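From the pipeline queue, job 12 of 40. The input is one protein chain; the requested action is below.

Action: predict structure.
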Amino acid sequence: MTIKEKISYLKGLAEGMDAQSNELGKLVVVIIDTLVDMADEIEELNENALDLAEELDELSDDLADVELVLEELEDELDFDSYDDFDSDDDDMYNYSDDDDDDEDGMCCDMCGEQGLSVDIACPKCGTEIELDELDIENEAVTCPDCKENIELEIDVVETNDDF
C-alpha cells in the first residue's frame, strides 16, 4: 500500500465516523488534509529525484566518452616524454642567448626544434646583426652599434623540413 493509498483509507475512516461532528474529529480531518499535502510533495520530490538520476546517468555516459577520446589522444601524442615535467623547475625552459653560440643549434631544451636566426649587415655602419624569430616577426631591429632602426622587408618565408 502506498502512502497516498494509506492516507485515502484514513480519510475514508474519518468521513465514515462523521469526524466533523466534534472538535477532536475536526483536528483529525485537518491532520489528514496535511498528510495529503505532504504525500503530494513527497511524490513530486521522488519524480524530481528520478529525473535527476536520469540526467546524471547521461552526464556519466558523456564523461566516459570524453575520457575515451582523451585516452586515444594521449596515445597518439605520446606524452610519455614529459613524465619528469616539474612546473617549479627554473631550468624548464633553457632558451639560448642571442650572444651565445649554441652548439646544437636548438632554440630550447623543451621543444628540441632548431631556432631560426638570420645574419644581416647594418646599412648605415656595416655591423653584422643576428636576427631571431621575434625580430623577423616584428619586421624591425635596432643596430647595437649605431642605434639605427632597421625595418625589414620580408616578401616570402619558406621553410625546409629536410634538415
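Job complete. The longest strand covers residues 117-121.
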